[in-house]
Amino acid sequence: MNNGGTMLTFIVRQYITVFQDEHLETATCPVPNITKILKVSQLEFDQFTRDTTKLLRDHKKCSDMLAIVELEATEQDKEPFYSSTKKKLEAARTKIDSLGIDITKARSDFRSLMDFYAVQPKKANVEPEPKEFFDLWTSFCAEFKDIWEREVKLAMKRKKQAEVKKAQERVEFIR
């Protein structure tokens, strides 16, 4: 059943045959939606780091102001404002710290992904950015999706033709 085409066409056909053949009507394309990839490609780790640093500075200012309230306010005026604000600041600090860890891990995972696929940054000695990787991935996914839709339609057409032929053979057999 080699009708020519690209290697990607072959891969799509094989994927459909192996994983989706029984359920062609509900088959879903296995690559991400292009709009999601474009959105992810706009991410900048440095901007996330700057935003997290700004959150830490703002948190410090709030903590400093709360310390002033603790020192200067009377017990009667201090509560319940002080204790509830302190709890919220502690929770915020935990979230900010967690966010910083997540950003560091995401950047590390992204570097590993770039290494795995042997994608090099365009500029030497510069941290790779998601845009560099996802520009390649976007064109791949767009082409894959186009071929996928075409091949699923062809497979469904072949499946219906086979069913019609089988039904005709049964009718001929009965006669």
TrEMBL record:
Any one Pfam family here would be FH2
Species whose genome carries this gene: Oikopleura dioica (Tunicate)
| SUPFAM superfamilies recorded | Formin homology 2 domain (FH2 domain)
GO terms, molecular function: actin filament binding; microtubule binding
The record's section on PANTHER family has: FORMIN HOMOLOGY 2 DOMAIN CONTAINING, ISOFORM I, FORMIN-G
In the record, the note on similarity to other proteins reads: Belongs to the formin homology family. Cappuccino subfamily.
Question: Any stretches that span the bilayer, and where are they?
Answer: none
GO cellular component terms, A-Z: actin filament; cytoplasm
Name all FH2 domain ranges.
1-170
- Which InterPro entries has this protein been placed in? FH2_Formin, FH2_Formin_sf, Formin_Cappuccino_subfam
**Name the record gives this protein:** FH2 domain-containing protein
Gene Ontology biological-process annotations: actin nucleation; cortical actin cytoskeleton organization
